[in-house]
Amino acid sequence: MLSILSSLLFAPTVLSHGIITAPPSRAIGSAITTACGQTITNAIKADNTSYVEQLTKLATSDTKFNAATCNLYLCKGLQYADNSANVQTWKAGDVVPIKIWLRIPHEGIANVSIVSTKQNKQVGEPLKLWTKGYAPGKTEKDVPLEQREFSVTVPNGLESTCATAGDCVLQWWWLGTAAKQTYESCVDFKTAAASGYTQERAFKA
Ligand SMILES: [Cu+2]
Fold this sequence. Notes:
Blueprint: H1 2-9, H2 11-14, E1 18-22, H3 30-36, H4 38-46, H5 52-59, E2 88-90, E3 95-102, E4 108-116, E5 121-134, H6 145-148, E6 149-153, E7 168-176, E8 181-191, H7 196-204
Parallel strand pairs: 2-8
Antiparallel strand pairs: 1-3, 3-6, 4-5, 4-7, 7-8
Helix pairs in contact: 3-4
The protein binds copper (II) ion (CU).
Family: Belongs to the polysaccharide monooxygenase AA13 family.
InterPro entries: Cellulose/chitin-bd_N (IPR004302), Starch-active_LPMO (IPR052282)
Keywords: Copper, Disulfide bond, Glycoprotein, Metal-binding, Signal
């Protein structure tokens, strides 16, 4: 009886797929409920690694879902306002270690990119790109370690675009091509102010 009950209780975990675990990635809070409705909040609460297609389907059943404020294809609708305490500060050249929890693999394609949240547009080239063979196999152990734990280098040219927290995210995007399931996980960051060297010189001049 107990084992039946616990298998029911833990059933959503079985559906788990993937999320960035380090640095901290966007999570739910009160802002996502305002932006996306309670149904989406509950779904992510039950399984924070759920896939976008599942959420878009659920959204159709919630009259409070507002596509204008909730873009499920940008960080799964998770909001900056709920994550302002977890903003990373990076400067060009920083090497950032990233860890992915890849609970259930679905072979496909993936990338890690900087995304401008206002335009929902990729900024520059992907920092990581897998054009095939991402997340093969049946369990997390089947997935090559370098697909789950890797580093990216913060590129030049983000100094003004990403100076304000909330304007940019680092987004991990993965599509299981046969499963037709999209996963997204976002890290909030801002770029550090320009180095003191230039400012000092300007003062002395
Ligand atoms: Cu799946």
